[in-house]
Amino acid sequence: MLKRIESHGGFWQSITGSLENNETHRQAAVREIFEETGIHCNAEELIDLELTNIFEIAPQWRSKFAPDITHNEEVCFALQVEKCEVRLDALEHQDYLWLDAERAYAMFYWSSNKKALAKFITLQCESV
User: Fold this and answer.
1) Between the N and C ends of the chain, which has fewer C-beta atoms within 10 Å?
2) What pLDDT shows up at residue 128?
């Protein structure tokens, strides 16, 4: 879990980001993982949660988008990694935690993060 800097809400969330320059969703996820945590991975390591959240952009962040953009589409992936040191982007995040699913779920600010975690848990249970 990553904690946003206070000027960006100060809440706990997962890694997030936007598409850049003709990226696929997988390519953007790999890039954002590295930018926000310093963790290297490749697109094949991502677990496709087969979940896309569509939600209204909160008013405090609307200015970052074109005036006609009111909703975000969030394509969700998971990545299994060993607990390691995380290198935060100080312009976005101020802290991180490694947590079990129950504690992470309780701390997530966004319902879309909760949906993605619940989907990941369901997929893990089905694979056992």
Assistant:
1) C
2) 60
